[in-house]
Here is the input.
Amino acid sequence: MDQAESLRELMKKQSQNSLARVITVTSGKGGVGKSSISVNLALQLAKLGKRVIILDADFGLANIEVMLGIRPKYNLADLMFKGMKLKDIITEGPMGIGFISGGTGIQELNNLKADQIELMTSQLYELDELADIVIIDTGAGISSVVLQFVILSSEVLLVATPEPTSLTDAYALLKTLNSFGDIIKDKTISLIANRVPSDREGHQLYNNFNVVVEKFLDIKLEYMGAVLQDSNLMKAVLQQEPLSVMYPASPATKSVQAIAEKIYSGDSEQIVSKGGITRIFTGIIRASLLKRGEVKNGV
Ligand SMILES: Nc1ncnc2c1ncn2[C@@H]1O[C@H](COP(=O)(O)OP(=O)(O)O)[C@@H](O)[C@H]1O
Ligand SMILES: [Mg+2]
Here is the structure.
């Protein structure tokens, strides 16, 4: 089998499955709360009865593991290069959520050979069966893999704080996305205002930011909600326990709970039909094969 055939095989398998809803969490700048929000959103969605798996696609920083207090033995690279099964690289976290460490596998998505694509082919599509919702915690900034995850996910949460650099970097990310034109047209990008003193100020942050986005970009930015500044978050990180577990009634937990409920209630067929984790991975692999000239346009 060559690469193109492997890819077609993978797409065929995924079309026979029910698809997971994929939510990609991103930001312009690091350290603004992506991982904190990913973890606690996963836990709150689990509380609402969803089967949730977090994929840590932030190469290098293993902070989700620390927040969950778990140490996965294997990662995505073990599946791609060593033939490990999907189930073996999923670690169970609190409240039954699953966790997959991307490890070096995320960066390697751009360099796969046919047999490695096949290893993914035979495993990855199962993720759509195992999870109702997959949350992808991406690295910050404009690396090509982060951009591809954002471009290919139908639902994107953009996290920003009131810090000026957080907002300018978030704007830079949107501007880059804007330059992709039509392919980002159907996407929902929703802003989460993190570390704000009140819900009102979160909404204000969105309004001010969106004035600029509307004026200069074609991207439609919606408002997802605010996560309050909460000193319990730091304490939870130090204890290696998620905030939602350690402080279930704290302000930031309540904020994330409200966001989870909003996401849950938006669980419409329209969104689900655009979902699927396999579609995103095949999209990334396909783009890199096209770039390397190893497949023609119509794979
Ligand atoms: N709402 C918040 N209130 C207080 N501290 C926060 C909040 N959100 C994030 N932080 C702190 O900011 C730091 C970075 O958060 P993290 O989730 O690791 O960011 P990222 O994944 O974007 O790099 C953490 O130490 C966390 O304690
Ligand atoms: Mg992080």
The mean pLDDT is 88. The radius of gyration is 18 Å. The CA atoms of residues 210 and 221 lie 7 Å apart.
